[in-house]
Specification:
45% helix
Length: 296
């Protein structure tokens, strides 16, 4: 999307506002978002927002702006509203959300902070839609392009699609991408979580496993901090949480592998896939092939 098309869109959808500035945001992997500043024509009130479009990319990655809007709206009306940005407007073309002032957290964000944020998320209102790992894998598979000709990849995909998925814990609200890169440290030192596009109801132990992978945490230590945050004190329960995380770790790698293959296909811009996404996908594929002890 160009700045001219974005300006035309906002003129149509928000005629009472005019666009002061717009710049594309870097860092989003499944997004190509914009920071926009709009001003109300009568009051002069300005809003700094993020434009999160509905696009071919969001469709390929299985993102619903309607679901993202609904979970943010539910959070905004809850007791934990400060954990996430507010929504501003939802259109068929995409979503406008509040710009979170502050700095992106560092990769060494303390594990206690991460687990406190995760625990807070797991107590938020439960979304009406949920993440099903096999359905998500099947969706990604439609968009991985020529990679489907790789017999190893086909074998891995068929393996996960054939499994009977274990239910460990009752569904909670899950973020499904709580990496340090999606945490903003506000000017007053608080923490705000952004990029809720993958949020859904789901098994909280899967969300914990995804969070551990995203932040490269040591699993047993992370589980210990999480259980402490959630008031889970008995050894048997803590052991079950660790077993659940261990169970989900290959699933995390499987979904991430397909996600990177989708990115390699979609963001190539050329006939050849994007090498950054492709190399990440191939590393995860090799890891799964070896760990699951498949043979050529």
């Amino acid at each position: 999307m160009s700045i001219d098309s974005l300006q035309a869109l906002l003129r149509t959808r928000l005629p009472e506002y005019h666009l002061n500035s717009a710049k594309p945001l870097s860092g989003g992997l499944s997004n190509r978002c914009w920071q926009v500043v709009i001003e109300h024509g009568l009051t002069g009130l300005c809003h700094t927002l993020v434009w999160r479009p509905h696009s071919a990319a969001s469709q390929a990655f299985g993102v619903s702006r309607l679901n993202e809007h609904d979970v943010l709206h539910a959070i905004d009306t809850s007791a934990k509203r400060d954990i996430a940005p507010s929504t501003f407007a939802l259109f068929p073309e995409g979503l406008l959300v509040e710009w979170a002032e502050g700095q992106t957290a560092k990769p060494d964000l303390p594990i206690a902070t991460i687990m406190t944020l995760l625990g807070t998320i797991h107590h938020l209102p439960l979304p009406s839609w949920r993440l099903d790992c096999q359905q998500r894998g099947a969706h990604y598979w439609q968009y991985v392009g020529g990679a489907v000709d790789d017999h190893q990849l086909c074998h891995i995909h068929a393996y996960f699609q054939s499994l009977s998925v274990t239910t460990w814990f009752a569904d909670t609200c899950c973020h499904h991408d709580l990496g340090w890169y999606n945490v903003i440290v506000t000017p007053d030192g608080q923490h705000k979580v952004i990029d809720w596009e993958y949020s859904a109801a789901g098994d909280p132990s899967l969300d914990l496993a995804l969070t551990i992978a995203a932040n490269q945490l040591e699993p047993s230590k992370a589980v210990s901090f999480y259980c402490q945050r959630m008031g889970i004190t008995d050894a048997a329960s803590q052991s079950r949480w660790l077993s659940a995380v261990t169970y989900w770790q290959p699933w995390c790698d499987y979904l991430a592998m397909l996600w990177f293959y989708v990115g390699a296909q979609h963001f190539s811009g050329q006939e050849q896939p994007d090498e950054g996404y492709l190399s990440e996908a191939q590393v995860l594929q090799a890891k799964l092939w070896n760990e699951l002890q498949f043979s050529d």
